[in-house]
Design a protein that fits this description.
CATH architecture of one domain: Orthogonal Bundle
Radius of gyration: 24 Å
Distance between the termini: 41 Å
Keywords: Cell membrane, Membrane, Transmembrane, Transmembrane helix, Transport
Oligomer: single chain
Protein name: ABC transporter permease
Subcellular location: Cell membrane
CATH topology of one domain: MetI-like fold
Family: Belongs to the binding-protein-dependent transport system permease family.
Shape: elongated
Pfam families: BPD_transp_1
Length: about 290
Amino acid sequence: MTGLAAAGTGAFSGVVSASRGWSRRIRLNGVLVGLSLLWLALVVLAAVAPAVLAPGDPVQLHPTEVLRAPGPDAVLGTEQYGRSVYVLLVHGARTALTIGVAATALAVVAGSLIGLVAGYAGGVVDALIGRVLDVMMALPGVLLALLITAAAGPSVGVLIVSVGVASIAGFARLMRGEVISTRTRLYVEAARATGISPARILMRHVLPNAAAPVAALATIAVGEAILAAAALSFLGLGPRLDVPDWGQLLASGQAFLRQSWWVSVFAGAVISLTVVSVGLVGDWLRERTRA
């Protein structure tokens, strides 16, 4: 009896310690998600109303303030033209967020339509679309976006299209799988038996039930699109704007990295924080859709 009691006590203690570990993990994840949402709210505010966070003029040059280290007059220092790095980062958020959201929207719409058709039609149509998607997924997304941007020329519109096209295959694959698992359910079979058109079945019955995983993936894809756009701008394929985007600011500080580290370091930190925050929020949404 004493041995059984000891074993029971040990098992109970193990369950309690495991539950405490899970509760600490949940609290930690909740804190990280909360901080990520706060950071993303600041990024959105910077994109919508940059003058609220950074009243300075991001275009005006200051030759006497070139490469000043971070301090009271310049919180994050200045770059090679004397402009505040903080002001440039705040005003550059609009370009980064515009490209990230627009490219993801293009990928979601195009990929979802392709996945809907392939998953619902099946047969030869599904096989043909599947081969095209296999070719697209065989190429790294950044490489495909780089090829499109290099061929069409640098601009915000081209960057949106190139990054969006590179993400279409992933959304099409996900939507196809969701449609295949949904189209055999009883309510879809009942709708088909009553003579409802395939297009109406897709829009009213299949798409709403397959949209949740796609929406969760779209949140993560925004961060990936921002990172891809920054990478292309870093390589010199970004749009030529008066206010440099985050990737261009990162690249511009590369030549002065040893003596003026703050230009590239702070630009890279902002990109990293934004991508990580979007990823954490996307993972949180994905877990909630599974629950």
